[in-house]
Design brief:
The complex is a heterodimer. By secondary structure, chain A is of the alpha/beta class. Chain A folds into two domains: 3-94 and 176-335, P-loop containing nucleotide triphosphate hydrolases (Rossmann fold, 3-Layer(aba) Sandwich), CATH 3.40.50.300; 109-175. Helices cover 32% and strands 24% of the residues of chain A. Chain A has twelve helices and twelve strands. Chain A has an eight-stranded mixed sheet with strand order 6-7-8-3-9-10-12-11, with helices on both faces. In chain A, helix 5 (128-141) packs across helix 7 (160-172) and helix 7 runs parallel beside helix 8. The longest helix of chain A has 18 residues, at 190-207. Chain B is α/β, with parallel strands linked by helices. In chain B, helix 5 (125-137) packs parallel to helix 7 (171-183). Chain B has one domain (3-349): P-loop containing nucleotide triphosphate hydrolases (Rossmann fold), CATH 3.40.50.300. Chain B has twelve helices and 13 strands. Chain B is globular. Classes of the chains: A alpha/beta, B alpha/beta. The A-B interface holds A 45-46, 145, 159-162, 189-195, 198, 216-220, 222-223, 242-243, 246, 256-258, 260-265, 267-269, 271-274, 277 and B 61-63, 170, 200-202, 204-206, 208-209, 212, 227-231, 233-235, 267-268, 270-277, 280, 284-285, 287-288.
């Protein structure tokens, strides 16, 4: 992949958090990139570092967090080295973010129309008089009925699905070239989820936007992304196009994750639990491969620094002993 | 099959105050007129049975009345109308506060949504499990300790963790405490309200398998409330789909999800994310649900959002009708039924599922 085609390139990003009980190594050498118009999904269980990645890209890490290594290249700008002024020009205008819980992310004491108008005034240099009219148009674009009336509503007066639409309107008001959607539909009903995800996909296609879609739902990611980066304990363990990842997962953790998703099984007995749990990221003796202590395929190689093995076109796996090609999933073995 | 729990025409309405009509209401009251409060029809005329040893799923979107229905049938909430029979005994007339000390309290137990929120933070895991045994079984001392330890190991909770407080336990361990607490008093019916919603997939698998194992060992009936259809499909024998206070479809879980008949169920099934490669029908619901406040009894609750929305739908609310082992509340159910299984001779309106 050429650098020119990439809308965002994250390279060897490492993040640490200082806590009272020690240093938490939340991200370790995370690399991935997203091209213009492409949707990449970051998938993993809670605590795998998905949201921390997004926050680090946006430069909104908690004060206890610190980027210790790496680059985040947005075009020619390294977001991690950029001045606050440069960042302010990029954030909200060229890169925007949909946060996990719209009810807490929206300002509770301002009408939603004004919160959208703020974006127009700040980033599109629209005069304040015209901004409210554009905010109403934006509400209409995200499918809110009776937008003129809803614009003066406060977040508590709207349902969860509508709040999420407002959040999307705010994120897309400045027509960004990169959207980060952090669990945009968690906590919504499946019917609303489908509508919201359609909306994001349609607007992204219309604006030619690159999207980083963060989710814990592998099935949802498989429907909505072109590529998936699977995260485990602060590592990207596998990064592959959708079809390759499901036809041929090479990292043992990816295979376990697929086999644990209810959608994959015909009965409950076929579902396979993932043995072990995430390692404590405060430990000073974390092995290079943070999955190795749970891994059935562990070898003596695993004590060496993690490889980034290209096993196919745009298919990268961080494993010394990847699953062989055509090795069926666990459940397939059980069924035969 | 023996009927364990029988709900007949159960309704629960909540009065709503405030709002733009408050002034009008005040005027009416001052002028001596009768005051009429608006009501939220949270559960509206719902009837069904749960048989012994059966796992029934209850699905529907947030705000459809799942939780109210569950709270009514576990007798945490008083019903407005209707009958709730546990075996031969009528429970609907007993106020919830009285039922809390009833001898049958132990027979219906509940596992709440987020074990982190529903376990008293000042109780250790031991106390959380022992609480119901103390109150309902009046066990003390050594017998209590033995029973708690038996239940904890049945739920796969290491005994060493019994002295810990909820915040010292992981999500999966807390879920186990929530289940152990509920099954400690040997209930006949266990109501599970989204027991795995807060858990990661890898932990979810373990908890679901634990629930299945416990059911095999103890022979309880389950009422499993969830919005995750792929989980309901795996765990449940039968499923009921709820929409705005009404049950709109019910039947064997697998057939309902493979061939949904009610348009709402069809949209629900179509919206469930599937692994790539499987074709998904793009049936999308438009708009927001109708208001549950004083709904027009002659309009189908799904009218306006439903892709059919014919003229009949706003003049006559569809009744829940039986088709073989399934029930559907839609005027146009025949069209789907006929398409799939050939003509139905007589579709009769039935009060029960």
């Amino acid at each position: 992949m050429t650098a020119a085609a990439a809308a965002l390139r994250v390279e060897r990003l490492s993040v640490e958090f200082r806590t009272r009980s020690g240093l938490v190594r939340a991200l370790d050498n995370v690399s991935f990139s997203v091209r213009k118009g492409e949707t990449i999904a970051l998938v993993g269980e809670s605590g795998s570092g998905k949201s921390v990645t997004a926050y680090a890209i946006m430069g909104i890490l908690d004060l206890a967090g610190r980027v210790t290594n790496g680059q985040v290249m947005f075009g020619e700008i390294d977001l991690l080295a950029a001045s606050p002024k440069q960042l302010a020009a990029v954030r909200g205008r060229q890169i925007s973010m949909i946060f996990q819980n719209p009810r807490t992310a929206l300002n509770p004491i301002r009408p939603v129309g004004r919160q959208i108008a703020d974006v127009f005034i700040r980033h599109a240099k629209v005069p304040a008089r015209e901004a409210s009219g554009q905010a109403i148009e934006m509400l209409r674009a995200v499918g809110i009925t009776d937008p003129a009336r809803r614009a003066s509503a406060y977040p508590f007066e709207l349902s969860g699905g509508m709040c999420q639409r407002v959040m999307i309107a705010i994120a897309l008001a400045a027509k960004p070239s990169l959207l980060i959607a952090d669990e945009p539909t968690t906590g919504l009903d499946v019917t609303t989820q489908a509508v919201i995800m359609d909306l994001i996909a349609d607007l992204a296609a219309e604006l030619g936007m690159a999207t980083i879609f963060i989710t814990h739902d592998l099935a949802l990611a498989s429907q909505r992304a072109t590529r998936i980066a699977v995260m485990h304990a602060g590592h990207v363990v596998e990064d592959a196009p959708i079809a390759d990842l499901f036809a041929q997962p090479r990292h043992p953790y990816t295979a376990e994750l697929i086999a644990a998703t209810p959608d994959s099984a015909a009965s409950l007995d076929e579902l396979a639990a993932i043995p072990g749990s995430l390692p404590d990221l405060r430990r000073s003796d974390l092995p290079p491969c943070r999955y190795s202590e749970r891994c059935p395929r562990k070898t003596e190689h695993c004590a060496q620094p993690l490889p980034q093995t290209a096993v196919g076109a745009e298919h990268i796996v961080a494993c010394w002993n990847p699953l062989p090609v055509y090795a069926p999933l666990k459940r397939a073995i059980g069924a035969s | 099959m023996t009927v364990l729990l029988d709900l007949d025409h159960v309704s629960k309405f909540f009065p709503v105050g405030g709002g733009p009509n408050q002034l009008a209401r005040l005027k009416r009251r001052l002028s001596g007129g009768a005051e009429r409060l608006s009501k939220v029809y949270a559960v509206d005329n719902v009837s069904f049975v749960i048989n012994k040893g059966e796992t029934v799923g209850l699905v529907g979107e947030s705000g459809c009345g799942k939780s109210t229905l569950v709270r009514a049938l576990t007798r945490l909430l008083d019903v407005t109308d209707g009958s709730i029979k546990l075996g031969a005994r009528q429970l609907a007339l007993k106020p919830a506060r009285v039922f809390a000390r009833d001898r049958d309290r132990a027979r219906i137990q509940m596992v709440f949504q987020d074990a982190g929120d529903s376990i008293n933070p000042r109780f250790t895991a031991f106390d959380a499990i022992a609480d119901s045994l103390r109150r309902l079984r009046h066990i003390r001392g050594k017998a209590l300790k033995e029973r708690v330890e038996t239940v904890a190991s049945q739920c796969g909770l290491p005994l060493a963790l019994l002295s810990r407080f909820p915040h010292q336990l992981s999500g999966g361990q807390r879920a186990r405490v929530g289940i152990a607490r509920a099954i400690a008093v040997e209930p006949d019916l266990l109501v599970l309200d989204e027991p795995t919603a807060a858990l990661d997939v890898s932990v979810q698998v373990v908890i679901l398998q634990l629930l299945q194992q416990l059911k095999r060992d103890l022979g309880m009936s389950y009422l499993f409330v969830s919005h995750d259809l792929s989980v309901v499909r795996l765990l449940c024998d039968r499923v009921m789909v709820m929409y705005l206070g009404k049950i709109v479809e019910s039947g064997p879980a697998r057939t309902v999800f493979e061939r949904p008949w009610h348009p709402y169920t069809q949209a629900l099934v179509a919206a469930v994310p599937r692994f790539a490669g499987e074709a998904t029908e793009r049936l999308r619901l438009k708009g927001e649900p109708r208001s549950p406040i004083d709904p027009d009894p002659n309009v189908c609750r799904f009218y306006g959002r439903c892709p059919i929305s014919a003229s009949d739908c706003k003049t006559k609310a569809p009744a829940l009708r039986r088709f073989g082992n399934r029930h559907v509340a839609c005027h146009f159910a025949e069209e789907f039924v006929v398409q799939r299984i050939g003509p139905v001779h007589e579709a009769q309106a039935t009060p029960q599922i």
